[in-house]
């Protein structure tokens, strides 16, 4: 509603900043609404007959936000379509909504934030909300306060919006909440302590040092976390730097506040009047629905500003009936307070509807009783059916006389047979028609990516289902979760804690208050004996492989077969992760250490052997080298640049094994045809960087793997391996001859250093000198020796591999070399070899088709390259 | 309020005040013996009045008449002498019952023990007072008592404590030789209802020096609390008689302030403790009259009625049902009928902005208190000719000074910002700045004193130069001596006296009234 929101405050903001941006995290990253969210993202669930996403948009529009990025992961297509079709995408709204689909590996809000960072979409302070927000808070006011604070205090990076309430407010989550320690005057948040409902957090701690600076602080446990954060631009980058941050509160806020290094501060904006709440679980779904119906969210109420665009008439007792006269109410039906009835809905005789929300085009049979029920569109409730405290999806058919007691969740399109009696907290979804891809394809899963396997599990457990759901049903009864199978889950997602978040569950049998000493919870859970509810093994696809932050994986039900499958998947997954991570590292110029840490984490998360990491790193480095066909010097300079920058990473991934490195390099080059020629030079560079020693090369050369044993004969790979091996052989030959000569000519070292190029029409003398020096002296020498090495070793293999020079051409060019600039040997050598490359390219053509572009390079760039490489080498 | 008036007049023994007077170990050497004579802490003058007068007058003003004064046996004669002569004249309405206990200065047993011992003499609700609390002018004891009366009656609170905001002592003026500066104890309280919820104890600090721990049960009951380290305990507690019963249960507790009160805060929110001690602290009685009356009062605030008693599932269900169908408000209804005693510990917080308050229980605050009273008064020459004649007209006495009776000030002596006791002699040319000079001191001519506290009967030799020193009663400063930041004690007495006079380290038992019992009843 942009026209409405043009207040004075907003103009202020508009003056200093063009656009107010908002980011919506549309994914829930958990599965509390299952099975309602099978085949549908949570943000598209309706609440009071408008989708959560629409409520969120409405809330943001009310706050004067102009640009919204919607970060979606699961069912992104549906989200995109919903955005496209919504009224907000009309140009007249002045709202610009950009859906952004994140990688499947986004498992937490933290991942999403890192994604935001990589997309670089944020230009200034922005509003971060979740896709399930219902709020009438003037967020623009929060933004104004935030910006004002930022003007004086650059370290105030975030303002959290919290709503004052009571500790037992119905909208307040009992399962997860937090204790805020605030400075009463500045509302700076000095400490944040997450609190779990069950097992009840018994005590919170706060550092004593807080009191040193703030002698009087407020400890607040009465805040509803609205999940509205005004963040400065630094926030996504902090997430990027601290890749272990998953949750925004528990990890980020807690981390920032407890960090001794960051020196950043987080503030709270305490909303006194106004409404803001998240629909984070089914319990809050109930609570927020009631809040909307009781008009706490005014001006966002069904009869005005309904986000879905529906028109409702507000009657006494907070009853809302669709305005278009399409609702047919029987003369004898009873409509209680706090009820919303969508258009084209029919309520038959003697039906009673109480504190419920009914969607559009529903039919409520005669004598049906609905109490605290939430019925989505196109649902039929049979005669005499009773629905209490439950959520019923769209297109559901409830048979006559069936009973849905409190806490049930019935997914879309389910049919429940007549006179079926569901148990409390039953969860029911529709059977899949065609086995392979009925229940939403796995790649699209919200929380549902594992739905295939989960559903299989569910299907396996249907023996007694018929008596529960009746005979003519198409439904699957989901097993009741049991407390036993979630030891490994995040405690927030554990069964008992989830009970605090589900609709209709009073959890009165749970020990929630802290007794003060050891009182064990008197557990009287008798409802179910089912097990394996969380049998969501990760078989379906690579997408389900755990990233570093996936919290909701439950390996308990994995069989060994599944295990192999999943580990294969994990490896593929890992490879792509590493590739991405390195890509980022390369692109953004991370330090080697940072990149290494990231790799280590990835490796641990995916549990792959070290060799895979090495392969990935070496591969990435080789692939990183831009091919410069026809210019050996430039090529070499490129290689030197990359290897010097990233080579050390090879040894920092968690283990040093140069032999393996060479082997990996060999296999990688051999497998990637066009990069085969790089092998010699990369190897030479590695040698030069002391990443690989002579002995290592020898060891590699002697190993059976280097000769390509075990590789299918006749394949291109073997061919490549052999070539590489041959190069290695030459190199070793080179070492040996050097050693011999070295012992002979030690005395010549110094003089040779001065004008080696002139003295050395052939490559050997300088090579030898450099070799001898490098052993005792600086990198500078070793650099020269190395650059000499490559052509020297490559010389004999020139006919085979294209990347090398021939001795004949080397000798043919010395005049030119000298004429250019040849004060140092490496300069001349570089240059010589660079020039030669051109000529050497021609014979190499047949083997390396990619290297055919042999335009003669001008002398100038070659020289420049040579010089630059000199300089850099000397700098070292 | 009506009923408090009536209660004062009709029920004479509504409260008994228990005034604890100890040795004042933190005030050593001022409280060390003078010769064989003890120097009871209670009788140390603050602004030339024995410090016990401050709490006594506070008591008198609020109409509490019965005082149980507990002091060590060795102080008995001095104390009873004081009570006979001074108290009976200045506080005629007080009925003081002096009780003593055997204790030596360095073997102290806690205040809890003391209280337990005298519990038979306390038959009504009681007020525990230290002898050294100088109440702020803006806060009357009646305010505390009224809070106590209201809350015990209508929601079953069990005690009321009083904390004051410590005024900032400028660190520069304080001398470390005088003992460590008292540090404030962090407390957690609910400001709206005035409830003390948690007192950080030395034990807590020992257990976790880095972090401060709070019970979630506290926070769920009082979700909006304050944690503050800017307050100090006045050691004034108004308690129900039943608290004594609980105290006798907890035999291992030693200090009221450091152990018992922190413990007493806990049953209000910890369920198991409530179950265990609830009946002791708040026995079931059939006295329902006033709570019912109060409920009908328009001033009645539906307070913290949610208790830790666990509702049965059915009850909960019923409440839930009720809530979900009808509530127009998002706040859950409180069940009004469940009036279970809250066992609260009320708290009166006194901010420094509304008047200075302090306990004179260490040298720093003792000096601060004296200075505070100096700043309140303006000195005028004594009006009666006898005293007038003792002050030489050439003496310079600044307006913010105070000079006791029968003190002679000789010519050209200069006194600034100082309290001079009775029967002192200030010699010629003596210069006294920011000092507290107790009774019967002799300061010879030309002596220079700055920031000192001189115990009674101290003699300062000519041209002695003392800065920030404290002297034991009867100490003699040799002529020409100069000392800085020292505690000057009479060492030669140690030879023929008991070693208890030797100060030898502050006995860190911070309760200066910490005591040994063993008393003669």
UniProtKB/TrEMBL annotation, chain A:
Residues 540-552, 790-817, 840-867 have a biased composition (Low complexity). Component of the translation initiation factor 2B (eIF2B) complex which is a heterodecamer of two sets of five different subunits: alpha, beta, gamma, delta and epsilon. Subunits alpha, beta and delta comprise a regulatory subcomplex and subunits epsilon and gamma comprise a catalytic subcomplex. Within the complex, the hexameric regulatory complex resides at the center, with the two heterodimeric catalytic subcomplexes bound on opposite sides. PANTHER family: TRANSLATION INITIATION FACTOR EIF-2B SUBUNIT EPSILON (PTHR45887:SF1). It comes from Dichomitus squalens. GO terms for molecular function: guanyl-nucleotide exchange factor activity; transferase activity; translation initiation factor activity; translation initiation factor binding. Residues 443-462, 736-752, 770-789, 818-839 have a biased composition (Acidic residues). GO terms for cellular component: cytosol; eukaryotic translation initiation factor 2B complex. Keywords: Cytoplasm, Transferase. Its main location: cytoplasm. Residues 568-745 form the W2 domain. It is found in: Cytoplasm, Cytosol. Coiled coil: none annotated. It comes from the Eukaryota. CDD domains: eIF-2B_epsilon_N (cd04197), W2_eIF2B_epsilon (cd11558). The keyword Ion transport does not apply. This is Translation initiation factor eIF2B subunit epsilon. Residues 427-489, 506-558, 736-876 are annotated as: Disordered. The lineage of its organism: Eukaryota, Fungi, Dikarya, Basidiomycota, Agaricomycotina. Belongs to the eIF-2B gamma/epsilon subunits family. InterPro entries: ARM-type_fold, eIF-2B_epsilon_N, eIF2B_epsilon, LbH_EIF2B3/5, NTP_transferase_dom, Nucleotide-diphossugar_trans, W2_domain, W2_eIF2B_epsilon.
From TrEMBL, chain B:
Keywords: Acyltransferase, Cytoplasm, Initiation factor, Protein biosynthesis, Transferase. Residues 500-521 have a biased composition (Acidic residues). Residues 300-336, 474-521 are annotated as: Disordered. GO terms for biological process: cytoplasmic translational initiation. Pfam families: LbH_EIF2B, NTP_transferase. InterPro entries: eIF2B_gamma, LbH_EIF2B3/5, NTP_transferase_dom, Nucleotide-diphossugar_trans. The keyword Methyltransferase does not apply. It is found in: Cytoplasm, Cytosol. It comes from the Eukaryota. Residues 483-499 have a biased composition (Basic and acidic residues). GO terms for cellular component: cytosol; eukaryotic translation initiation factor 2B complex. GO terms for molecular function: acyltransferase activity; guanyl-nucleotide exchange factor activity; translation initiation factor activity. Its main location: cytoplasm. Residues 17-153 form the Nucleotidyl transferase domain. The keyword Acyltransferase applies. Residues 391-469 form the EIF2B subunit epsilon/gamma LbH domain. Belongs to the eIF-2B gamma/epsilon subunits family. Acts as a component of the translation initiation factor 2B (eIF2B) complex, which catalyzes the exchange of GDP for GTP on the eukaryotic initiation factor 2 (eIF2) complex gamma subunit. Its guanine nucleotide exchange factor activity is repressed when bound to eIF2 complex phosphorylated on the alpha subunit, thereby limiting the amount of methionyl-initiator methionine tRNA available to the ribosome and consequently global translation is repressed. PANTHER family: TRANSLATION INITIATION FACTOR EIF-2B SUBUNIT GAMMA. Component of the translation initiation factor 2B (eIF2B) complex which is a heterodecamer of two sets of five different subunits: alpha, beta, gamma, delta and epsilon. Subunits alpha, beta and delta comprise a regulatory subcomplex and subunits epsilon and gamma comprise a catalytic subcomplex. Within the complex, the hexameric regulatory complex resides at the center, with the two heterodimeric catalytic subcomplexes bound on opposite sides. This is Translation initiation factor eIF2B subunit gamma. It comes from Dichomitus squalens. The lineage of its organism: Eukaryota, Fungi, Dikarya, Basidiomycota, Agaricomycotina.
């Amino acid at each position: 509603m942009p026209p409405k929101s043009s207040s004075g405050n907003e103009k202020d903001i508009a003056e200093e900043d063009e656009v107010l941006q908002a980011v919506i995290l549309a994914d829930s990253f958990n599965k509390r609404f299952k099975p309602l969210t099978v085949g549908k993202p949570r943000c598209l669930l309706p609440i009071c007959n408008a989708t959560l996403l629409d409520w969120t948009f409405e809330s943001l529009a009310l706050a004067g936000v102009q640009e919204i990025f919607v970060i979606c992961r699961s069912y992104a297509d549906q989200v995109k379509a919903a955005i496209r079709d919504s009224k907000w995408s009309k140009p007249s709204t002045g709202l610009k909504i950009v859906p952004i689909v994140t990688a499947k590996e986004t498992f937490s809000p933290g991942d999403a934030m890192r994604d935001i960072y990589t997309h670089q979409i944020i230009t200034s302070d922005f509003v971060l909300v979740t896709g399930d927000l219902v709020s009438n808070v003037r967020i623009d006011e929060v933004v104004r306060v935030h910006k004002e604070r930022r003007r004086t205090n650059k370290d105030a990076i975030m303002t959290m919006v919290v709503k004052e309430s009571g500790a037992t407010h119905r909208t307040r989550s009992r399962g997860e909440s937090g204790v805020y320690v605030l400075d009463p005057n500045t509302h700076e948040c000095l400490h944040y302590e997450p609190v779990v409902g069950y097992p009840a957090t018994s005590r919170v701690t706060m550092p004593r040092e807080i009191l040193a600076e703030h002698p009087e602080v407020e400890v607040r446990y009465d805040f509803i976390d609205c999940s509205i954060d005004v963040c400065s631009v630094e926030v996504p980058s902090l997430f990027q730097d601290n890749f272990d941050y998953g949750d925004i509160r528990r990890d980020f806020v807690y981390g920032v506040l407890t960090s001794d290094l960051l020196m950043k501060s987080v503030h709270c904006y305490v909303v006194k009047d106004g409404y803001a709440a998240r629909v984070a679980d089914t319990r809050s779904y109930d609570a927020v629905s009631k809040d909307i119906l009781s008009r706490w969210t005014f001006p966002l109420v069904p009869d005005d500003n309904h986000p879905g665009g529906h028109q409702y008439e507000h009657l006494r007792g907070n009853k809302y009936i669709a305005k278009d006269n399409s609702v047919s109410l029987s003369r004898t039906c009873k409509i209680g307070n706090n009820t919303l009835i969508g258009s084209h809905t029919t309520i038959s005789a003697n039906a009673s509807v109480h504190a419920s929300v009914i969607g559009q085009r529903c039919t409520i049979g005669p004598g049906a009783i609905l109490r605290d029920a939430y019925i989505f569109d196109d649902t039929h409730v049979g005669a005499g059916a009773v629905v209490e405290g439950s959520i019923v999806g769209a297109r559901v058919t409830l048979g006559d006389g069936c009973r849905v007691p409190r806490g049930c969740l019935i997914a879309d399109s389910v049919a429940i047979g007549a006179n079926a009696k569901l148990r409390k907290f039953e969860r029911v979804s529709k059977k899949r028609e065609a086995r392979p891809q009925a229940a939403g394809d796995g790649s699209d899963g919200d929380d549902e990516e594992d739905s295939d396997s989960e559903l299989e599990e569910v299907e396996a457990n249907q023996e007694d289902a018929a008596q529960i759901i009746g005979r003519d049903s198409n439904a699957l009864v989901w097993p009741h979760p049991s407390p036993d199978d979630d030891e490994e889950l995040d405690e927030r997602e554990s069964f008992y804690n989830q009970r605090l978040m589900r609709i209709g569950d009073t959890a009165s049998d749970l020990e929630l208050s802290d007794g003060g000493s050891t009182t064990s919870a008197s557990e009287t859970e008798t409802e179910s004996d089912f097990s394996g509810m969380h049998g969501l093994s990760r078989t379906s696809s690579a997408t389900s492989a755990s990233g570093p932050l996936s919290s909701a994986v439950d390996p308990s039900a994995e069989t060994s077969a599944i295990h192999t499958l999943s580990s294969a998947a994990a490896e593929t997954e890992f490879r792509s992760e590493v590739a991405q991570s390195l890509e980022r590292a390369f692109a953004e110029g991370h330090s080697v250490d940072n990149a290494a840490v990231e790799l280590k984490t990835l490796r641990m998360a995916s549990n792959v052997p070290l060799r895979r990491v090495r392969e990935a790193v070496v591969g990435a480095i080789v692939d990183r080298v831009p091919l410069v066909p026809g210019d050996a010097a430039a090529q070499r300079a490129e290689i030197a640049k990359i290897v010097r920058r990233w080579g050390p990473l090879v040894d920092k991934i968690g283990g040093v094994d140069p032999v393996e490195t060479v082997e990996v390099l060999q296999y990688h080059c051999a497998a990637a045809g066009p990069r085969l020629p790089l092998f010699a030079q990369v190897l030479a560079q590695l040698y030069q960087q002391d990443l690989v020693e002579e002995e290592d090369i020898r060891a590699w050369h002697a190993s059976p793997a280097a000769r390509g044993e075990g590789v299918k004969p006749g394949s291109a790979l073997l061919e490549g391996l052999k070539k590489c091996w041959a190069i290695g052989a030459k190199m070793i030959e080179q070492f040996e001859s050097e050693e011999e000569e070295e012992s002979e000519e030690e005395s010549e070292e110094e003089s040779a250093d001065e004008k080696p190029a002139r003295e050395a029409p052939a490559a050997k003398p300088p090579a030898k000198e450099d070799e001898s020096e490098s052993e005792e002296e600086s990198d500078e020498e070793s650099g020269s020796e190395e650059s000499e090495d490559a052509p020297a070793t490559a010389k004999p293999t020139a006919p085979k591999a294209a990347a090398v020079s021939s001795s004949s051409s080397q000798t043919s060019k010395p005049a030119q070399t000298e004429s250019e600039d040849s004060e140092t040997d490496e300069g001349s050598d570089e240059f010589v070899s660079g020039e030669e490359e051109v000529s050497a390219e021609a014979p190499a053509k047949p083997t390396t088709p990619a290297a055919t572009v042999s335009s003669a390079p001008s002398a100038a760039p070659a020289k420049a390259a040579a010089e630059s490489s000199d300089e850099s080498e000397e700098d070292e | 309020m009506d009923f408090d008036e009536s209660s004062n007049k009709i029920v004479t023994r509504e409260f008994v005040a228990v005034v604890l007077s100890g040795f004042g170990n933190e005030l050593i050497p001022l409280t060390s013996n003078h010769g064989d004579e003890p120097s009871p802490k209670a009788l140390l003058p603050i602004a030339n009045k024995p410090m016990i007068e401050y709490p006594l007058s506070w008591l008198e003003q609020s109409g509490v008449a019965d005082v149980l004064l507990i002091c060590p046996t060795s102080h008995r004669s001095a104390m009873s002498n004081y009570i006979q002569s001074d108290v009976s004249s200045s506080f005629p309405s007080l009925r003081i019952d002096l009780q003593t206990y055997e204790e030596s200065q360095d073997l102290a047993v806690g205040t809890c023990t003391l209280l337990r011992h005298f519990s038979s003499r306390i038959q009504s609700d009681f007020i525990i007072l230290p002898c050294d609390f100088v109440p702020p002018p803006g806060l009357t004891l009646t305010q505390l008592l009224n809070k106590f009366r209201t809350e015990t009656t209508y929601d079953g609170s069990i005690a009321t404590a009083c904390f004051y905001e410590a005024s900032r002592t400028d660190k520069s003026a304080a001398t470390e030789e005088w003992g460590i500066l008292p540090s404030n104890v962090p407390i957690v309280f609910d400001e709206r209802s005035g409830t003390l919820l948690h007192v950080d104890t030395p034990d807590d600090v020992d257990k976790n020096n880095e972090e401060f721990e709070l019970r979630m049960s506290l926070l769920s009951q009082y979700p909006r609390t304050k944690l503050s380290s800017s307050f100090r305990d006045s050691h004034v507690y108004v308690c129900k008689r039943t608290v004594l019963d609980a105290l006798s249960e907890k035999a291992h507790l030693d200090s009221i302030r450091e152990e018992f009160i922190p413990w007493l805060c806990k049953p209000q929110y910890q369920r198991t403790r409530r179950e265990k001690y609830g009946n002791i602290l708040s026995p079931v009685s059939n006295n329902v009259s006033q709570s019912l009356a109060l409920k009908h009062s328009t001033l009645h605030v539906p307070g913290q009625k949610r208790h830790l008693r666990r509702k049965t599932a059915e009850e909960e269900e019923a409440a839930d049902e009720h809530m979900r169908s009808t509530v127009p408000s998002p706040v859950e209804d409180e069940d009004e009928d469940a009036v279970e005693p809250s066992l609260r510990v009320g708290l009166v917080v006194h901010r420094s902005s509304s008047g200075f308050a302090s306990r004179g229980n260490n040298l720093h605050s003792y000096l601060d208190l004296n200075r505070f009273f100096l700043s309140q008064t303006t000195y005028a020459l004594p009006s009666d000719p006898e005293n007038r004649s003792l002050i030489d007209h050439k003496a310079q006495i600044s307006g913010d000074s105070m000079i006791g009776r029968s003190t002679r000030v000789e010519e050209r002596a200069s006194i600034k910002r100082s309290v001079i006791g009775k029967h002192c002699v200030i010699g010629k040319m003596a210069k006294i700045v920011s000092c507290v000079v107790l009774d019967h001191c002799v300061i010879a001519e030309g002596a220079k004193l700055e920031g000192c506290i001189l115990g009674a009967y101290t003699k300062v030799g000519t041209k002695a130069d003392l800065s920030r020193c404290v002297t034991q009663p009867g100490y003699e400063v040799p002529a020409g001596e100069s000392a800085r930041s020292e505690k000057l004690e009479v060492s030669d007495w140690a030879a023929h006296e008991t070693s208890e006079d030797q100060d030898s380290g502050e006995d860190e038992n911070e309760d200066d009234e910490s005591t040994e019992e063993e008393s003669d009843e």
